[in-house]
Amino acid sequence: MAIEPVSVQKLRSGYTAVDYGAVANDFVPPVGKLIPENMLLDISMSKNKYNALIHVRTGYLIPYTIMGYYDDRSPHHDMIRNDLYAAGAEMQNKGTKAVVIYCTYEAGRKNKFFYANFWYKIRPDMANPDTLRQKISWHPLIRLNPVVDRCPATMPEAESLQKPYQ
Q1: Chain Cα centroid distance, residue 114
Q2: Rounded distance, CA 76 to CA 141, Å?
Q3: DSSP H helical segments within the chain, as ranges?
Q4: Which helix (H) or strand (E) holds 114?
Q5: Are 71 and 110 in contact (CB under 8 A)?
Q6: What is the mean pLDDT of the chain?
Q7: 18: which strand partners?
Q8: Are strands 145-148 and 113-120 parallel, antiparallel or unpaired?
């Protein structure tokens, strides 16, 4: 039996907010089946288990989110920013708005979370890790994890898919 959302709201930002309320700890929302693929989603749910998936968001590549962890005075700043915008433009040309799926897990203590970011359904051609490493070995787009069509159900599953940053 399919679980239905408690509420669905279209936000002015272009996102659709979906709230499932309290759900089973192993529940993973059917992102691709929930609404048309070109929509941007913000999905929340309540669970009572450590390691459980509690929030899903599909979205654009957000330069300040991906670039924020390194010094913007870096000599590579402009190249990386241009690559981020190029990846987003490539995906829009392919007809999709959702480029990345952001998964949040309850990490045990109150207000402690584990975040895992993955390419959503497809990786842009320009974001091939081998090509990016030729530009700069620590390119931020390499940090995005493999292509998935939904978040892993648990934090250990998400951790197992993460690649070491090389």
Answers
A1: 12
A2: 13
A3: 31-34, 63-67, 77-93, 129-135, 155-161
A4: strand 113-120
A5: no
A6: 81
A7: 8, 43
A8: parallel
Q: Using an 8 Å Cβ cutoff, are 36 and 50 in contact?
A: no
- Spell out the alpha helix ranges (H) of 27-105: 31-34, 63-67, 77-93
Q: Mean per-residue pLDDT for 122-134?
A: 88
Q: What per-residue confidence (pLDDT) applies to 30?
A: 83
- Residue 33: CA count within 13 A, CB half-sphere: 7
State pTM to two decimals: 0.81
Q: In which residue are the tokens 């892993």 written?
A: 152
Contact 70, 84 (CB under 8 A): no
CB atoms within 10 A of CB 29: 21
Sign of CA dihedral 1, 59, 141, 88: positive
Tokens of residue 13, six digits: 């930002």
Q: Torsions phi, psi of 116, nearest 5?
A: -135, 130
Per-residue pLDDT tens for 69-104?
555 667 787 888 888 888 888 888 887 766 788 899
| pLDDT 10s digits, 15-66 | 889 999 999 988 999 877 665 555 688 899 998 788 899 999 887 765 545 5
Amino acid letter, 40: L
